[in-house]
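Take just one protein record:
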Amino acid sequence: MLSRFLRQAPENFLSRDQIQAVRSGRRGFLAGAVVAAAGAISADRAAAQGDSAILNLPAHSKGLGQPVAVRGYGLPSEWEKNLQRRESPGLTRVPQASVSFAPLQGLFGIITPSGLHFERHHQGWWDIDPSQHRLMINGSDESLLKRPMVFSMDELMRLPSVSRMHFIECGANTGMEWGNVAVPTVQYTHGMLSCSEFTGVPLRTLLELCGADFKRARFVLAEGADGSGMTRTIPLSMVTDGQVLVAYGQNGEMLRPENGYPLRLVVPGVQGVSWIKYLRRIELGDTPYGTKDETIHYVDLMPNGLHRQYTSIQEVKSVITSPSGGQVLLEKGFHTVTGLAWSGRGKIKRVDVTSD
């Protein structure tokens, strides 16, 4: 909902001068906003008494509205249609291997609606028939897993499940700021971040059913069913505490196709690339697997020229979402400052805000 005191950012355009101002004036902008908030809120009572929105009854106060179940699945108001995921033109050449950014500047609380959850695809998304989807669990060595098994979706959904809230962040999130590239809004600087309630079966439960040797095994390999063949090594120590989920639910409903329907891995606090979508196989092993997406991609170049592999924990970050880049405060008075703080290392206990 748009406030009459806050002009929203134009989502796809700022002038060259405005973009430069976003880069150089963020601290000054925030300081000015806090100083302005020190003034009392001015309510023009005289104008309110003669406000046509009060004196004249609108159509919705004088007639029948829409009947029930006009849409079998509810949609946002048409007045909120500007709040969308957006891609960054020119970021990648192929849209099937690209990113869409969540509109953090327009959201409330910490939960991201499923339809606004950011996307990252390596070869496009698919809407997979759940009746045909299978999850196989095997071991790289017969001694590591006694009973290799294949699960259907029905079989997985009959097992005891848990629901937990977790954030997911792409490893490239905030990379534009790190590279000192000016972009117009927080959607583009921090929008590869979302938070949902995920529902599924702890991966440890499935490994126990298969007779896993938790003493000898050290890693699991997760494999997706999309055309990119996305595979990632995950330390078994992240699995044994029960936090890693084989998830089929998101925010009270099934996963959306662009977010891995019908099955994805949830690895709390870890780069989103390890949250394998369209999950079809888990392999238990005793050594890292060294797949292409952890040896060629998603590695950190060190100052000495060496590559650091298997970095995955998302470190602590924070961002002010409103007022933020591109937004304009139209009147003096109090304005709410909102933001987010998150970390893959543990819970955020305290957040400090400064205007200097």
About this structure: The radius of gyration is 24 Å. The longest strand covers residues 193-202. The first helix runs from residue 16 to 24.
